[in-house]
Amino acid sequence: MSDQTAPVSLEEFNHRLAEISETMPKRLRQCAEFVAQNTDRIAVSTVAELSIGAGVQPSAFMRFCQLMGFSGFSEMQKMFRETYAQKWPDYATRLDNLRATGDDSPSALLAEFVEAGRLSLENLASTVDLKTLEKAVDVLAAAPMIHVVGFRRAFPVASYLSYAFEKMDIAAVLHDGVGNLNPRNAIRTGDVVIAITFAPYSQETIDLAAYAHDIGSQVVAISDALSGPMRKTDALMLSVSEVDVGAFRALSATISLAIALAVSVGAKRDKLAHGK
Question: Looking at domain 128-273, which CATH architecture does it have?
Answer without folding.
Answer: 3-Layer(aba) Sandwich (3.40)
